[in-house]
Amino acid sequence: MSDPSVGFIIHNLKQVVTLAGSSLPRRGKEMSELAVIEDGAIVVANGKIAEVGSEADLLAQFPNSRRVDGQGAVCLPGFVDPHTHLPFYGTRENDFEARILGKSYAEIALAGGGIRSTMRATRKASLDDLVTAAKPRLDRMLCSGTTTAEAKSGYGLNLETERRQLLAIKELDEVHPVDLVATNLAAHEVPDEYREDKEAYIRLLCDKLLPELKELAQFCDIFCEDHVYSAKESRRILSRAKEHGYQIKIHADEIESVGGAELACELGAVSADHLGRISEAGIKGLASCETIAVLLPGTTFYLNLPNKAPARKMIEAGVAVALATDLNPGSCLTESMPAILTIACADLRMTPGEVITAATINAAHAVGMGDSRGSLERGKWADFVLWDIPHWRYLPTHFGVNLVKDVYKKGRRVVQDGRRVSS
Ligand code: NIG
Ligand code: FE
């Protein structure tokens, strides 16, 4: 393996899709401007990008650098996946089949399935179990081109298990090349033991689960829906979270329009996620505040739901749109950002250029990391992916297979010919 502190130049790249441009999230027409360099090259030193430009210029400028042949690949920034439920335990294939056979969400939950069945399995899992179960997921993410991801707790719903999930995220971040940013989602549901007294669980959240877990999580998230936490309850819980020092994310307007997007703007949330039932006022609000809309088209696809996020309307209104997998065992079990890009094109009518922006620079902003990754620009981490494709536009047209050749993380090749390089 190469020593990343020693510089090298990767050349013979058919296209380098840099996404260079504004330091702000991209909106409207900017989402289609990818700043592509034909016949490009990248100079890497100390894990960072030292220079990006045309091969002819950079080979002349750095004649003594070690050369790495890009073999005619198309190079993109590593994907940032800004919404995953990574550290879960157990599987839900019974739910999947029951849903196809016509059972409702409530019936499945009553029969012992749903979020709470994952909660029961996760509560029984040790830290080691959680880490061992999540590692192959991270390997699959990396092999599919994801180099940074957000990861949520939310299947513990008690102090001990939420902490264990966040500790698993911390350990995985330390041992695995994919960089992780942690989110406390203790407000994912109301646990069984508080079913009759939601108010008591809200007090526990505000006074214990949020403050005691702050050192393990940068973000606090909530499932804001009338049957889980109403907009009013969400405002109360998230306001406390802000006082405890968290940045905010919201599962907003997924199933019903409850003012989740408006609440996200009001609270200065970093992102509002899902948005299948966002209101007109919510779209207007997001277009004029800094909150990023993280769309999860894999979930509506997987659940066969009609309420797909109105991506076209949002982009045309000037909302900064990002895309994520929503990786979780129940509503969208995939690690693949490329699959999400295809679904976003097919179901949300986003263009290939827009989905690439949404999965890179805008996704980086959705986890507060737009200044260090998400585009290939001098000074950012050398996180990039070489794709075995003829043109960047081709990427979302070919799905269900892996077209990743090599992945570089902080200047180190961690995937070669589609396979993890053992560390
Ligand atoms: O983001 N919407 C709420 N939570 C998850 C589903 C989790 C599950 O079913 O286990 C989501 O889709
Ligand atoms: Fe989610």
Q: What keywords describe this structure?
A:
423 residues, single chain, binds N-(iminomethyl)-L-glutamic acid, Urease, subunit C, domain 1, eight-stranded mixed sheet
Give the end-to-end Cα distance, rounded to a whole number of Å. Answer: 9 Å
Number of spatially distinct domains: 2
Q: How big is the Rg? A: 21 Å
- The helical percent reads 25-40%
Question: What's the CATH class of the largest domain, please?
Answer: Alpha Beta
Average pLDDT:
96
Q: What CATH architecture label of the largest domain applies?
A: Alpha-Beta Barrel
CATH overall fold name of the largest domain: TIM Barrel
In this structure, how is the largest beta sheet organized?
A: 8 strands, mixed
Strand order of the largest sheet: 3-2-1-4-13-14-15-16
Report the principal-axis shape.
globular
Q: In what range is the share of β-strand residues?
A: 15-25%
Count the E strands.
16
CATH fourth-tier homologous superfamily of the largest domain: Metal-dependent hydrolases
Number of helical segments with 4 or more residues: 15
Bound molecules: N-(iminomethyl)-L-glutamic acid, fe (iii) ion
Low-confidence stretches at least 5 residues in length (pLDDT < 50)?
none
Provide the structure class. alpha/beta
Question: Could you explain the architecture of this structure?
Answer:
Strand 2 (about 35-45) and strand 3 form a beta hairpin. The chain is built from 15 helices and 16 strands. It is an alpha/beta fold and about 425 residues long. It folds into two domains: about 10-80 and about 375-420, Urease, subunit C, domain 1 (Roll); about 80-365, Metal-dependent hydrolases (TIM Barrel, Alpha-Beta Barrel), CATH 3.20.20. Fe (iii) ion binds near residues 83, 251 and 326.
